Structure formats: structure tokens, C-alpha cells
Amino acid sequence: MSSNPSFFDYPVPREGPAAPYKNETQSIPVFRGIPLAIGATVIHNVGFIQSHFWRNAGFDVIREIPYLHQYAARHDPTVIPIDHAHRDGSAPTAASVERRKGNSGYYTSADYRAMYESGELTPTAVVETLLPLSQADAIRAAADASTQRYKQGKPLGPLDGVPVAVKDEVHLTGYKRTVGTKLDFSGGINATSWCVKQWEDAGAIVIGKSTMHELGLDTNNNNPNYGTPRNPHNQDYYCGGSSGGSGYAVGAGLVPIALGADGGGSIRIPSSFCGIWGLKTSHSRVSGAPTLSLAASVGVYGPMAASIDDLALAYRIMATPAPATQDPVSSQFPHPVPPPADTKRSKTIGIVRDWLDRAEPPVRKVLDAALDHYRQQGYTVIDIAIPYLPEGQRAHTLTIMAEIASGVDERQIRQLTAPNKVMVSLGMYQINAQDLLASQRLRNLLMTHLAHLFQTHPGLLIVSPTTPIPGWHIDGGKADLSHGLSDGKATVRNMEYVWLANFTGCPAINCPAGYASDSGVPIGVMAMGEWGTEEDLIAFARDGESILDRTEEGSTSQGLRIPAAKDALWEDIIALAQKHSE
């Protein structure tokens, strides 16, 4: 029962035990190539070897946490804001989107719309440019319909005709739902997920599904099944995962907006490595249920975009609550309505210093510069404490593995790539009820402690790097891309900050804040807010947008810069479409 009248199922605010932060980088061997293939088969089939790897991972520390028995297990982190003023079904106010900022900036949805309205370009020309070899008749039909609406001066709104991509974790009419595997997890459904349907109803053109890490079970987006997109800023690095395909589509300029999904990992990592904004919504707020089915989604959905304006626009459209007949949980959320322009909000940033000290020097340098920028914007930075962060990360991982394993059977494990044969086998055969329940008790402990922090410091945003590493290098080159990779140490490091928002159901936003000097790979800063504070996070991102403003060689550039290195990957879709239409 909620202890806060503004929410349903809000955690009872309760300060957690005093537990000094203590963490160590885990020593986990890296497997690749033939040893990975052989080892995965052995681990999948030999129980005592599974047990050895499980014990070495240290998951047994969760059940040993003192006083954990005082907390009930909480299996669902959904907390629903109550806003009676906006439950009348009225459409949310569309975000105002600015056009591209100079020749080094990304195109936005406003660029597409302006050119459609002027007749310089048509949605049909854009789609033909993006899909020159495709026979995707439904996509072309959507583009032709949008083209006709613009000719008649009756576009559906700011997203009409704008190309978007969606992660293969959602359902999409005419497509299998493979979740990055060679299997079909469509469940007999040939319908479009609610959140994607909202974009389509607004006129957006879904050009297709983007690749993802198989089952979303790692954070580099290495996928031998369908290919691994390389980082647009540096092809020797991964985009990040598991939504790396969507991150690449936006970062490389193919589309201004894409859908990520948080099916256990986090959608913040690719937007960090690809240098774009990404919003993780409150758990269960955005419905992934297909329009014709009650089938549940497996995680949390959120938009990625190359501009904050587009991020806000995409979020407010896709977060329209689903009807109760399709998704009874999403239907309880209020419409995503931006606050009035004159609304005063708290500007308090909380940091856990020992936790932040884990970041590598280039990342910490970017974070410190970002914090200085926010201080200049009137923010107060305070020290906070959150107990059991390393143990919480293990509990989060254990929970993901259990959830994924519960949806896969023995025959399907054999058809997975080698790294996931290991992960799913461990999840299926090594997790016991005591470990799983202890993890859910720890989830409740963390949620009640966060509620205590949010009640003590209204408007608090908890800020950290998005990931402690300045990009993930493809160490094995083409061989790793062909055969897959198991690097548990890098995986754990990469998730060190983002797991908390996922595990506790809080919304979070990734804000590009700098670039690694040696590789040019973007570095992101993440803010996590109280349940239901997506609009506060968007405002936070706006306050930090000028971090990326710079002056070099006598010229000034604002905001994000498109990939511009010698071997960078960026497509000027509008220029190509204009040429195509000549």
C-alpha cells in the first residue's frame, strides 16, 4: 500500500542500514573463439562446472546481508504516479523541436517536417533512400500516405513522415520477434506493440527493427547472428548494448529517433557510447503490449534521440497510457504532460563519492566538468549514501538471469550463441529459491532507502557516469564479431551504474557530456530521479545541453557533433534523399 498519496505502491520511506561502500573489480576470465565454443558446451552440460563458475561469481553474498530478513521480497518495482488532473484522456502537449544546429549537428524531426512542408523533400524520397534494396511494401505505403498528407497540408503532427527504428524486443506487424536470437519469440502474435503503435498513429514511419544483443544478456551488442553495428564515432569500438542497434541508427544519422528497450539490462549504455540522449522510463509506464494481445512486455521501453527536443516529443507520444483491456498496469499511469513553463523545481544533485571514484580517469574528468557546469546552472551537489551497491548489482544480475531462463527451454539453449549458453544455463540450473528471494528482499531495501532519500531531498536527482569505462574496444577484431565474446569483467564494469535504475524501477536519462580524447568515443552522464519524474529528467538534460558547446579553429559549434573522424560512420540522409528525388 502506498505511503505517499501522490503514488500507488510507493515504497515505505526507510533509511537503509549503514554499510560502508566496498567493491572490488572481479577477476573473470575472457573467453573467445574456439575455447569459448568448447567451454560453453561443457558448462551447459556439466553441473559441477556450472557450480564452480556460480560460486566464483560471488552471488552467495546476497543472502548474507545483515537484517535482510526485515524486508519483504518485492518482485515488481512498478510505482504509479497519481495525477487526477490529467486522466481525462486529453492528448499531451507536443514538444517544440528546434532544427539542426549548424553543419556539424544532427538532423532533428523538425528538419524533416520543414522540408516536407516546403515541398523540398517527401517522406517517400526519404524511405526510398533508407531502403533502396528493400521490398517493404508496408513501409513504402506509410511513406506515400504521409507524402499525400503533406501535399494536402494536413500532416498528423510533428512526427508525420519522420523515419524511426525500433528494437527487436518489441512486436511489429510483419516481423518476427527474435530478440536477437535465431529463434522466434513472437508467441503467435502478428501485431504492433502499443508504444510503437502510438508513433505510427502520429505518422512516424518505422523503417524496420534494429539489431540487439542476443536476449539482451550483455552490454556490448556483439551479435554473431545478425551482425554487430560498430560505433559511429570509432569503428574499433562497440556501440554498447543491448540496444546498440537503435543507438547506432541514431548515432550514424539514419534516423533522428529510435526505440530502445530495457529487458533486464539497460538502454542507457548504447546512448552513452554513441553520443545521443536516451530516456529510461519508470518501470511499466510505457506499454509494450501488442495492440491485439495481452501478452506482457519483458522490460521497460524508452526513446533515444540526437536532440533533447526529439527525445521529449517521442516520449510524450509513446507514453500514452494503454487501455486497461490491453495493459492494466500501463493504463493506470497518467498522461505524460509537461509541467507549466513557470514551474519551479528543485535543483539538487546527489552523488555517492566512493561509487563515482570507481570510474576510469577520462570518465571521471567528464563527470567532474559536468557537475561544475550544473553548479553554474544553480544546482546544489550533495553527498548521499546508498547501502549495498555491489551486492545490489549482483542481485540485479541474478534476477535478470532467472527471468530470462524462465522464458527459454532446454532445446532453445542449444541454439543460442556460446556466451548465452553459459548465462542461460547458469540461470536455469544454479539459481535457487533462497538466492532469488534474497535478491528481491534487497530490491525492497534499496527502493525503501531511495524513497527515504527522495522524501528527505524533494526533487533529488542521483547523478553518476552512465558507465565507468570510456567505450568498449573490440579487442578481438573481426574474430570476436564472428564468434561472439564472453568478457564478464567488462560486462560487470559496464553495468556498474546503470543497474540501479533498472532494478528499482526509477526513470533515468543519459546525457552526452564529452568525448574520450584518445578514441573520440562519447562519454555520458546519467541522472536517476524519483518514480514518475521523466519530465524533471528532460529538464535536467536541457540544463546540461550546453556542456557540449565548443569553440575550435575560430568557429563555434553548439550541442552534439556528428561523427567526424576519418573512419567515422554518418549518413546525411536528407542530402541523399534530395539527390534521390532529383
From TrEMBL:
Pfam families: Amidase
Amidase domain segment(s): 135-537
Annotated stretches, region: Disordered: 324-345
Molecular function terms, GO-annotated: catalytic activity
UniProt record similarity statement: Belongs to the amidase family.
PANTHER family with a match to the protein in the record: AMIDASE DOMAIN-CONTAINING PROTEIN (PTHR11895:SF67), TRANSAMIDASE (PTHR11895)
Name listed for the protein in its UniProt record: Amidase domain-containing protein
